[in-house]
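ok here's the first one, seq then struct tokens
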Amino acid sequence: DAKKIIKILKVLKTSRLIKKFLLKTKEKYPLIKVRAEKIRTFSELEKEIIQCIDEDGVVLDRASPELRKIRRDILKKEQALKNKLETIIRSSRFAAIIQEPLITVRQNRYVIPVKQEKKAKFPGIVHDKSDSGATLFIEPFVVVELNNSLRQLIKDEEREILKILQKITSLIGERAQEINDSVLCLGEIDFIYARAALADKMKAVEPKLNQDGFINLIQARHPLLQGSVVPININLGRAFNILVITGPNTGGKTVTLKTVGILTLMAQCGLHIPAAEGSEVSVFKKLFCDIGDEQSIEQNLSTFSSHMKYIVQILREADFESLVLLDELGAGTDPTEGAALGMAVLD
């Protein structure tokens, strides 16, 4: 498929141009340079594709001498056909028979529109008729051989194009592994750029990292909140390792939990976080959260039962290298019992 080959050509060009650009920045970005050096270039393959196919996916005459010759013969044959048909159209003998003085194509054959009632007076092969039935599209007997020759040339053209595409596909196949490796390098570089662009958009900073369970978020913001956002400060893991957040409804308790969780995950994914300079995040081996109402009709679980199911699972799997986020611990039951349950879980 010529259009798919053009898509591959664009990848090859992109690889070459990106590598050329990134190698110029090696002094400023040495780690990017290391990745850029892994990108392979395919200049000869690019030239071969450009020689044979244009940017719209059309195989060019210059792709092979044989294709150029066939296409010249097609043009000559088409012209001869049209000249013959023009002679018929202009002939006074057929003036009253022809519906319209034009040449058209039906079933890949050049034909003339003829009045249905005059069919017997026009020797030829009927290939089609109009929706109304008043017009028949007839191929005159005198051009049948020319039409046959033209169809044969078109078949020859299709076979030659197939040979050219097979040749290019084979050349691509020989370098397929190298191309694939380069695409993976481009993907990695693109991912780095995407992270940088996201950090710039969020006005994010690089957090300090530790493995001691210490979190110190300064002026942190949830990355999905837009507009005027009230930042939060969270300190956890040194003087104490359990933090209970209380306050009225819509006071931001759940958003705070989500902010801590998502910023922790962002940092562990190599992303900058939307917070102030000096913010610090720990690398946790496990992160558990139970946030929101997860009622299950299928399992016939109430709000309370649903929370309890998750909390039991968390208590079973969490350890000293885990971050656990629990929202509205003990909700869905009697406040006194819920408070007692919350204290037991925290203990």
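and now the second one, same deal
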Amino acid sequence: MMLPLLEMTYKELADAFTEQYKKGPALAKALYGEFFKNLNPKAWQAEEIQASPGLADRLREDLSFSPGKIVDEIHQDGLTKFVTELADGVRIESVILPLKTHQTVCISSQVGCRMGCRFCETGKLGLARNLTVEEIIGQVYTARRRYGRSIRNVVFMGMGEPFDNFENVIQAVRVMSDQRGLNIAQRHITLSTAGRIDGIEKLAALNIPNLNLTVSLNAPNDDLRGRLMPIHNTVSMVRLQQALRAYPLKKGNWLSIVYVLIPDVNNGPEHARQLADWLQPLRAKVNLIPFNPGKNAPFRAPHETEIDSFRRQLIARQIQVQKRAPRGRDLMAACGQLGSGIRQQGLN
């Protein structure tokens, strides 16, 4: 049986070691640490593995490692966008964002996306397929190997809707947060959804209290949200609010509500009032993001005065707001721009 280490928690590997090799947890721990902590894909080279007769040879044959290969990368002001070509030839994009003490990697969960949000470049691609756990974790693993071990935050805000690939995304969270491996604390992992209510409810049932949840809202009423985000035509603002009210937040934690500000579309005084009213029963903060235009964009980017005006209106209504400065816009690496610069196979 092949061992795809990028898809396995330590416990899963230890169980496989016992069943497949009749070896104890100490050797499984050595292999797991060599692979994830030392970032050595040839983990059978670990000293403890070499000392066990015949084990290294068997593992050399059994270990599977197919994260894809980086075929392009662009750097600007500390930000990096890298393009990964997967085994079947399709490509995904990921972004590394530098912070003062560490780095955040923004990763993809699908090749393309079926949501079709009008302000998002990825949505124009349509959906080719879900990523495997190995392909999801591979982005984090490759980022650490190639760009530095200071990557401590992971956000599922790249290509795709994470809740459309729920099982693989959750297994990826388990793998990347395993303390014996990548050891990225769940409080440093964020799942972002366009509002898949069934996904929100499934995540709530798993009771992973430290995991961060972000909802991409972008409109304060059913009519406007349905025009901007086709997924909303199957739900409603009331139903989405109910799901978020029922979501089990850990004490001190907040929901993050993303609001992409689009001039002359969702930035009027009535929109600020409706948004504040909708947020009133929720423990939530607004992440205010200026629209980032792509090629042939249907909207323009907002001016700073427009962003500040909307922010002040929300603050006046006692809403906590964080304004995000656009980063990577010139690289087509900003929020809503991924996928615009790559050619996808199997997409219309």
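notes on #2: DSSP finds eleven helices and 14 strands in the chain. Residues 93 and 120 are 14 Å apart (CA to CA).
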